[in-house]
Amino acid sequence: MTSPGDAAPVKPPPSFSPGVARVASTSPSRYPGEHEGTQSLDAELAESQRVSSPNPLSASIADLPIRSGSSHSRSGRSSTPQLARSSIGSPFDGRSDGFDDTRSSIIRSFSPTIAVHASEDTDNLVRNKGFKGGFWELVRPFGETVSGKVVIRDSIGSSRAWEDYGVRFVDFKGLGRAPASRDSGVLAQMEEVLTKQLNSSDGMFDTSIRTKDVLGFPATTSLCKSFLQQLLCSAPTAPHETFGHPVANVIVISSRNPAPLETLRQLYADGTTGDKQLPDWVNEEYLRYYVLVHDEERDDITESIKLYDQMKRHFGLHCHLLRLRSSQCVVTDDDSMQVPQCEWLSPAEHLSGAEALVDLGTDGTPYLFGSDATAIRAFIRELVVQSVIPFMENKVAVWNDQVASRRRGISGRFMSMSRRWAGFGSSSRSSIGGSSGGNSGNYDPTQHSYSPDSPEAILRKMADFAFMLRDWKLAASTYDMIRSDFGNDKAWKYHAGAHEMCAVSMLLNPLATSGKIKLDSVDQMFETACYSYLTRCSDAPHALRCLSLAVELLKSRGGSATESAAKWAMRVMDFGLVGSLGQIIYTERVAACYASKTPVGAAKWGGRRRKAGMWSMLAADQWLKAGQPTLASACLEEAEHLYADVLPADGVFPMPEMQNFVETLRHSVKVEYLESRGFDVRDEPASEDLLGTEETSEKLDMRHHRRSLIGLPVQLDAGAFNTTQGPLDLESLPNDDFERA
Amino acid sequence: MAATSKATIPSSSTIHGSISTLNNPKLLEMSYYFTILSPTDTPLFNIAFGTSKGGGDGIARFRFPETAQYMNQFIIHSSLDILEEAQWTNGGMYLKHIDTYPPAAAYITAFLTPSGARFLLLHQPPNLPSSTSTTSGLGSSSLLGTAGSTTRASSSSIAANPTSPQTEEAVRQFMNEVYENYVKTAMNPFYKQGMEIKSPVFRARVNAAGKKWL
């Protein structure tokens, strides 16, 4: 039974069974024609974008037998005349889509999920190295950025290299079993993390951390960025979107294992049966990848290679031999390096991580041998480039051909119409048959999910795959196709998710025009998604994610889109989706949205400086009330900067009550800022004077009053002068502008 | 529903409830803040008043009275961004509704005079208690009974809707009457352009126009 010869019971995964490969090889020839008819412009652009083959990487991939299906199709397509016209050096080639930081992190947050299922002996080996979470914890930080470029082919066959591709490793045991109670607490946890970040590193979030964009206005603050990242990665595995469903399952054994093939079979079986089985709504057609971890220090490499060859014979090419050292690495070792920090930590992990750091002191981050890190990086690169990406490309092509094109064609439309109106015709298409009435074909209202092999679920999965492969055009058209179906079936979460992702992928598509009509429909989709999430499903975390995506993506579009970005940010506050600190962050976002709308022409037309300034002032006021004078002074500085262009005189507001408010705010920010830095302001005679005569002096002469404020830090010693950098800038910047004007 | 949003609902609704005319049958009372700005953005004249039509007492009740003083000015000042854009695209003197400040549900309507002075009217519908907003199809049954649903509810009833044609027309009449009085005041030999308007007669007339039309 356990002899290597009859290890046949491990069924080869469907992904590399020959039937699938053959289908893949035929599919691309069919659907490019479909696209060319309608989107000739895009096809042309994509063509110019194509870096034609002298890429060593794609060539080497094409040599592999596993890629045979796709490499055939590529050569078949390159015989068409239009491919010969491909040009190198178009403006699209060199441009990485990471030109916008926020945009890039949004793109990276929707990366493929890879489950890690390690045997007990492997986890023990890794635990010896100091990683308590086992193999999963060891590879996770390395998965967030795959080293080197990753080349992905989209649905019309053009390749594109991505520098910042990443995958997300999750523990197989925790997958799909996120406790439902946490679902409601995510927003509260995020607020808690915010509070912690503010308290623990009071001086850290200084003005210097704010990244300034070209215009000198802060694009994002670090707080806001971490808020967004937590929000994007906190979504639990859910039926209505497949980003959290595993694309691949990595099955890991170590060389210490006494019965390797038996263990592999057991681990494989865990995925389909038993108590570790994934929920019903997860599609079982994911890639299985087998890894043998070789212990460099204790085991014989010849034995491991023998075993590895055996694995290759049984499981095909989705195998890897990972050579690691089993002893723990300490800082003083020759070859030691620090394990990179995880970028995508959910709020819960942030909270527990912060506690762990306190416990362990400075020794929180583990170290790793450089050779181990290199081996892991190579493993992840091979896994992603040679197995996961081709698998996803194949799947998208197959589903596009078999499900989507049928749905797109005239008969598919008729089918869905007849299903909607009459109730016949559903049985012919739904694979599980026997549904609960003609109206709601494949949707199971009790489970709130579609079965994974229904056309709706497959189309959603295909769109998600296309999205993760960064083929936003295909993703947008697929989401667009299915979003009304979900509404007809009253599958409201699916409905909301499809609308949300349709709008997001339309905004991410760099080739799409930013016409007014397009933006209107995008706005409409966000509106629908938000309404479905909030009112129909009462799913606040998803609604917040949807609106935040809307804010950030519309803001990065620029132009008139920034106004709707500001509108969505105000909507977030209006709905009460965020706590009191979150409110302030979104107030800052509104200011940033308005500030990013730049005036055009000599007449300074179409700027939103006054609005941005007002929101910054409000943010400063709120930060001050929240007891964060450092942040308040940064906001105040920004507001002064924004107002500098539009006010007739420097720092003087035309309206008396506004002026009063701003003067009071300036003063109290200054006082609290100095107090927080350890200066007892009441000892200073100047400030005493200020505190007492504040009201009257403002009314007598406002400009003069400001001068007296400037004088305050100068009276302190030189050390104090340096630490009060923020308020000093605040005074000096508008003065410069005044002199220029 | 998240714990955070639950926590905010009662607090915000109690605040709104205390401000708004909770037990007042006259639910459609608007609050107005009217400003005349010189071409250099200096305020020449300010007045705050409330609805007088339909039995209103003509007293402004802004939603957030503790901040209304400066917030109204902030809102009006920030709407100058939009005004500067709208004055080139709209040929008329009356620019209608140009801007909204959603957090306070404040609507700005603008009027341009040939001399460059700007009339800006901020109007704020009252915050309806959500129990009375039965007319709204979507918002009233919202799970989050926060300001979002109530503003939607209030804006769906015609008389309180600041962007409805009736309101626009009423504001136009008001603006025209104020303009007439403004011209008369500005022609006073003791008035220099750009000076603050302190005339009690003018104030009384603006008040009367407000009573008459709004």
UniProtKB/TrEMBL annotation, chain A:
Residue numbers spanned by region Disordered? 1-97, 423-452
Gene Ontology CC: TRAPPIII protein complex
Taxonomy, superkingdom: Eukaryota
- Pfam families recorded: TRAPPC-Trs85
Bias category Polar residues: which stretches? 49-58, 80-89, 442-452
Report biased composition (Low complexity) as residue ranges: 67-79, 423-433
Q: What is this protein called?
A: Transport protein particle subunit trs85-2
Q: Which organism is it from?
A: Penicillium vulpinum
UniProtKB/TrEMBL annotation, chain B:
Q: Region Disordered: what ranges? A: 130-167
Bias class Low complexity marks the residues at: 130-160
Cellular component (GO) terms are: cytoplasm
Pfam families associated with the record: Sedlin_N
One Gene Ontology biological process: endoplasmic reticulum to Golgi vesicle-mediated transport
Q: Which CDD domains match?
A: TRAPPC2_sedlin (cd14825)
- Gene3D superfamilies cross-referenced by the UniProt entry: 3.30.450.70
SUPFAM superfamilies in the cross-refs: SNARE-like (SSF64356)
Name of the featured protein: Trafficking protein particle complex subunit
What is the protein's species of origin? Penicillium vulpinum
